[in-house]
Specification:
By secondary structure, the chain is α/β, with parallel strands linked by helices. About 45% of the residues lie in helices and about 20% in strands. It is built from four helices and five strands; from the N terminus they run βαβαβαββα. The protein is elongated, with a radius of gyration of 18 Å. The N and C termini lie far apart (about 40 Å).
């Protein structure tokens, strides 16, 4: 499984992103990021952008975030490509909600509950991906058995 973590280069954003990346990698999840401090609003997602390669997207916004436009852009891009999306936002900075985006608020002094929610999000995505792989493998095995049975 691959996740894309979108974050600003503010100190809190870097801390949260690195902690989240370490925990995800410890679970065998590949972490993709884009560490550009700012991107112009004309920036577009090309065929090699990590959002397209990711199985899920987590965007981080804190009081230290330098550019909320990039945060919103990454969220909307992920939704546009039908990626599961989670927005990890520091308490008191954003009051948005969306059917396509799961928002989790966190307190920088105590991130335990937010990390538990993210863990649940990642585990469910990982399990869904594993189930889909088993379904494909099972379907291919049944097709192979059918085709071998037809040759007799």
């Amino acid at each position: 499984m691959k996740i894309y973590i979108s974050y600003s280069l503010g100190l809190t954003d870097l801390y949260v992103a690195s902690r989240l990346a370490r925990e995800a990698e410890a679970k065998g999840i590949t972490v993709l990021t884009s560490q550009q401090p700012t991107m112009p609003s004309t920036w577009s997602v090309g065929p090699t952008h990590p959002i397209l390669a990711a199985d899920a997207v987590i965007a981080i916004a804190t009081r230290d975030s330098r550019n909320f436009e990039n945060f919103s852009h990454d969220l909307q891009t992920a939704v546009g490509y039908r990626k599961p999306v989670l927005a990890l936002v520091e308490k008191g900075i954003l009051g948005q909600s969306s059917d396509a985006i799961q928002y989790i608020e966190f307190d920088r002094q105590n991130m335990g509950q937010a990390l538990a929610q993210i863990n649940t999000f990642l585990e469910s995505r990982k399990n869904q991906q594993n189930t889909n792989q088993w379904l494909v493998a099972g379907g291919l095995a049944l097709l192979a058995l059918y085709l071998f049975g037809q040759k007799k």
